[in-house]
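comment on this one:
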Amino acid sequence: AKNIKFTAGAWINSSTYGQGTGGTVKLNANERVHFGGESKNGEASMIQTTTSFTDIGAGDAGSIEIVADYINFTAGAWVNTSTYGSGTGGNIKLNASENVHFDGERKNGDATLIQLSSNFTGAAGSLEISANSIQFTNGASINSNTYGPSMGGTVRLDATETVLFDGERKNGEASLIQIASYFTATGNAGS
């Protein structure tokens, strides 16, 4: 496709809730991939490939790959490949020949976000962003924390010109990369 747009709360969900592996999501556009805005009931536009089964044999989350000239997530749109169970979280690859830009927040204050956290016993996946310019502005963030005994996700940003984290949300929270192991967790933070 030339352009791929998900707006006003439109979303993709390829998560697993049992022993099967979650589906892989691949979006390939000649020019632009854009996720932005929220539905009338406040749901954000998003891509989600999570895993949440907590018993033995839980399926791993699927991966997400987006290729375009420009990749834009705005107004609280987010990408989530976290693990909430014993399966491994999904990997995220964003590859733009020009610009990857995450910006802003929803009306309720939730940030535009990439989330690949570990919330149970499964290890988080990884994030790779490759572009000419990578920008996270006005409070947009990356969350690769661990809240349990497994390791948080690995984050790699590869830009030929610029990596920029700038600005804050209305509540004062800044654009950031968060890779932490919380006090209730025994797992190591990612890198």
